[in-house]
Amino acid sequence: MPYYTTHCRIKARKGGDFLIWEVKKEIKEALEANQPVVALESNLITHGLPYPQNVEVALLAEKVIREHGALPATIAIINGTVKIGLSEEEIHLLGNKNNALKVGLRDIPVTIARRENGALTSGATLWCARKVGIEVLATGGIGGVHRNIDQSLDISNDLLVLSEGYGIVVCSGPKAILNLEATLELLETLGVIVVGYKTDELPAFYFRSSGIRVEVSADSAGEIAQIYRIAKELSINKSILVTNPPPKESWDKAEFEPLLKEAIEEARSLNIKGKALTPYLLGKLAQLSKGKSVEANASIILSNATLAAKIAKKLKEL
Fold it and tell me: At the N or C end, where does the chain have fewer CB atoms within 10 A?
C-alpha cells in the first residue's frame, strides 16, 4: 500500500499545526479502487506558459485525461500543503498570481516549512506521485544537461529522480534548449529506459526529430505498459521515459537556433543560471518567436496527456 493520508499534519514552528499532505478525495478513491490516474506537473502552469494560456492548457490537459478513461492529478504545494489533485480555483491561483516558487525535489521541505506556494518540476512531481501510488506522469519536455555543461555543470535533478524509482514519464523529449546527446547519454548511464513512441529518433521538444537515435521504440500504449510491468517484476528500480514526438513541427530549426542563441546570450549577460535559467529561456523564446513557442508547448502538453492516459489505462488491464 502506498504511503498517503488526507490528514498528515506537522507542528508549526510558531504554534498550532498544519496539513502537509493532502490527496483529493476522488483521487484517493480511484487509487484504492485500482483505477488509472495520471499525474500532471504544475510547473508548466507557472513557468512554462503565460497567463491565461497556462490555465486554459492545464484545464484542457485534465479534460483530455478524463476523456481517455483516466483521472488527472495535478500536483502542487499550496500554502505549505502538498496537494495531490488541484481544484479549478487552485489552478487559477497558480496561473494568475505569479507568486509560486519553482520547486524541485530538494525544495519541497523548505516550501512546506515556509508555508509557501510551489509549482513542482517533473522530478518533484514524480517523487510525489510515487508516494501515493500514481505510476504515470505527463509533462512537456524534461530537464537535462544544459549546453554550457563545460562551464557550469548544470544538470537537472529530474534525471536523478527518474533513476531512483518506478514510474512512466511521458514527454516530448528533453527541451530543445538542452544538450540532447549528453542528456540521452546520462539517462543511459543512470539506467533509465528511454522509449520512442512510434519513432526510433529522439524528439526534441518543439521538433519531431533530433537526428539522435533511441535504442527502443514502441508502437502502442500497451507495449509501453508491458515493458514497465516486466521491469517492475524484475525489480529494476528505474523509471521509463516515453518520448512522444510533438503533433507537428512547430517551426524550422534554422529559425529556432538563432533565437535560442540570442536568449542564451542575454541570460548569460544577466547572470541568470541554475533553476531560473530554463524558465527564463522559455519566456524569452515565447517573446522572440511571437508566441509560436507557446502554441507549440500547448499542443505538446495535450498530446502527452492523451498518451499518458492511454498508458495508465493499459496498465490496469495487465
Answer: N
